[in-house]
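Please go through the protein record below and see whether the fold suits the sequence. Record follows.
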Amino acid sequence: MYKGKVISVVVPAYNEETQIAKVINTIPSFIDYIVVIDDCSQDNTLEIIKEISKANEKVVVIHHEINQGVGGAIASGYKWSRDNNIDAAVVMAGDGQMDPKDLPLLLDPVVSGEVHYSKANRLIYQDAYSNIPKIRFFGNAILSLLTKIASGYWHISDSQTGYTVICKEALQCIDWDKTYKRYGQPNDLLVRLNVHNFIVKDVPLKPVYNVGERSKLKVRKVIWTLSFLLVKMFFWRLKEKYIIRDFHPLVLFYAYGFIFMFLGFCFLIRLFIVFFSTHTIPEITLVLTLFCFGSGMQSIFFAMFFDQDNNKHLK
């Protein structure tokens, strides 16, 4: 136990035969359960986990017959933790990129009741730019900005980190069967936590790379998939939080902004068509274009301000 609380560590693993033993064996002794989810690995990961579980009674083995993605594996671990009355569940990847020595820093805010969900933030750690591969740094920064807008947690960054701690209340509240099953799971979860008004905290932690891990994440491919997910979750949050659960006029500002931005693009297209056809700029169309873009952007910025103000107590 940790400070009187029962703690589980959820370890999603897919083809991690070179790293998984090290991850399990270095988890601190105060952890009560180590829930390892083999996500239909094609190597010897499952056999290694089963062998370790024979000597370590804390290890719980969950095997997926069909690959569900890292988000699906985490959801399975969360559901086990929920069903076994765990007070706080940690997520640590099976590739060894998360330092077990940092566990108390993430656990303390949750077990003390200060927050409901804590997550690592590698982007604000000293010399992070030098330690994180550049394409990952910039990709993460872009997705973090989009996640701020989509989730309503304007104070968080490093949205792609998988090193997290979640409390019992949130474990029981979230419908884990509906969460995203792939690499966008942390982004999806932040949106859902915001809808339920859970408090989230960023904890600066040192980035860990080049410890033998084999990255399965293709940034150029994933960034477009996750961007689409965030757009979808953004509108879902507006509907759930500001229309169904408790109406807030910021949805009207967003609606006004998006409508006028769309009209602005329509007028802009007409302006170019007329210009290339007659080599003259239609003044009325130009004025309407500028008005629509200006009004639309102003309305969207007002909506963002109201959203930020409405969520300032969740940090």
About this structure: The longest helix spans residues 250-278. The chain is about 50% helix and 10% strand. The chain has a mean pLDDT of 91. The CA atoms of residues 87 and 168 lie 5 Å apart.
